[in-house]
């Protein structure tokens, strides 16, 4: 029986697309029960609909209201895992505690370096020669949870922020699918 997941996304949803593609191509044995967004215009919602995955939009700006609805949608979906993919809200400590070690996130840096927003830009401006991406469990902090797996991405002499960003996204898509596969196989 395949593992069940809910994906939370606020934006483009390219990581979600990588998951949808991997499932369709039998590279990932998982069932995406629902895609939930806080943004009505999130392209992730379109990708979910095209992939015949149920969607929910929860637009409330009030955290308690938002999380109550989120918990209800998650319960109804029956998803065992909560997969954050470009989800731009911070989940409250009680919500995280209620789903301890069941929420994963991807972040475009080699955490603990460059947490928070615009991590690719932060690394670029810092002038490092190497950055990367991290999949981690979500805890009460911002990008502080236990690290599951990382991929390094070299910053090459001819890179621009745009070429680096493109390579980073490619690395993210591969890493996230790989970690979700490990989850589905019960190896993490
Ligand atoms: C990714 O870079 C992810 O690491 C970060 O937000 C971005 C989401 O991209 N948390 P997408 O919506 O999956 O295309």
Give the gist of this structure.
With 188 residues, the chain is α/β, with parallel strands linked by helices. It has a single domain, classed as Rossmann fold (3-Layer(aba) Sandwich). The chain is built from six helices and seven strands.
Structural description of this entry:
The chain has 188 residues and is α/β, with parallel strands linked by helices. The protein has six helices and seven strands, in the order βαβαβαβαβαββα. The chain has a seven-stranded mixed beta sheet, sandwiched between helices. β4, α4 (93-98) and β5 form a beta-alpha-beta unit. α1 (14-24) crosses α6. The chain is globular and about 50 Å long. Bound molecules: 5-O-phosphono-beta-D-ribofuranosylamine. 5-O-phosphono-beta-D-ribofuranosylamine (GRF) binds at residues 9, 11-15, 85-86, 106-108, 172. 5-O-phosphono-beta-D-ribofuranosylamine (GRF) binds next to α1 and β5.
The sequence of SSEs as H and E is EHEHEHEHEHEEH
**Number of self-contained structural domains:** 1
**Overall mean confidence score, pLDDT:** 97
Bound compounds, please?
5-O-phosphono-beta-D-ribofuranosylamine
CATH topology: Rossmann fold
Shape: globular
Number of strands: 7
The CATH superfamily turns out to be Formyl transferase, N-terminal domain
Helix content: 25-40%
> What's the tally of helices?
6
Question: Under the CATH scheme, which architecture would be assigned?
Answer: 3-Layer(aba) Sandwich
Give the arrangement of secondary structure elements.
Elements (H helix, E strand, L loop, with lengths): L2 E6 L5 H11 L5 E8 L5 H8 L4 E3 L5 H15 L3 E4 L8 H6 L4 E5 L11 H8 L3 E8 L9 E8 L6 H24 L4
Parallel strand pairs: 1-2, 1-4, 2-3, 4-5
Antiparallel strand pairs: 5-6, 6-7
Helix pairs in contact: 1-6
This protein binds 5-O-phosphono-beta-D-ribofuranosylamine.
């Amino acid at each position: 029986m395949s593992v069940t997941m809910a994906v939370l996304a606020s934006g483009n949803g390219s990581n979600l697309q990588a998951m949808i593609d991997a499932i369709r191509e039998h590279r990932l044995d998982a069932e995406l029960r629902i895609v939930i967004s806080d943004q009505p215009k999130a392209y992730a919602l379109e990708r979910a609909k095209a992939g015949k995955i149920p969607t929910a939009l929860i637009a409330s700006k009030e955290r308690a209201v938002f999380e109550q609805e989120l918990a209800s949608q998650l319960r109804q979906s029956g998803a065992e895992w909560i997969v954050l993919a470009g989800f731009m809200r911070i989940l409250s400590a009680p919500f995280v505690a209620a789903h301890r070690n069941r929420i994963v996130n991807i972040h475009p840096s080699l955490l603990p370096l460059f947490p928070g927003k615009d991590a690719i830009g932060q690394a670029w401006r810092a002038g490092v020669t190497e950055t990367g991406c991290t999949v981690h469990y979500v805890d009460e902090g911002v990008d502080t949870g236990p690290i599951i797996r990382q991929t390094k991405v070299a910053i090459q002499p001819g890179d621009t922020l745009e070429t680096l960003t493109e390579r980073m996204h490619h690395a993210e898509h591969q890493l996230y699918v790989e970690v979700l596969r490990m989850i589905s196989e019960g190896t993490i």
